[in-house]
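This follows on from our talk about sequence and fold. I would like you to pick a protein and set down its sequence and fold. Go ahead and set the record down below:
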Amino acid sequence: METILVTIDDKVYRMACDKGQEDHLTKLAAQLDQYIRHLKNNFGEIGDHRLSVMAGIMILDEIEEIKREYKKLQESHATLLQKNQEQDRHMIQIVQETTKRIEKLTQELRKDAHSLNLQ
């Protein structure tokens, strides 16, 4: 475990994290600091606990919005995948029908060529 110092709302906190996660944790702390500063700018000094709760709710609201967007993207992806599969089946059918027509025409041409050679 590694130990780093992060600053949130002008207060320094010592935090532990896995080795290699120091930058990630520092960025997360900076984001939380931004939320708290935003709230302080809008509501003033309303207490650390209340600021933390409000910041947590804002973050959870953003997470929920991202989940909703992700679900919509999954549904769109499923719809597009289904349409793509239907188009693939249709194209396979067209290729098969075209192949049969070409084979039939080839047989007819061979018959015509054979009958021309016999005459």
In short: The helical segments are 22-43, 48-118. The chain has a mean pLDDT of 95. The chain has two helices and two strands.
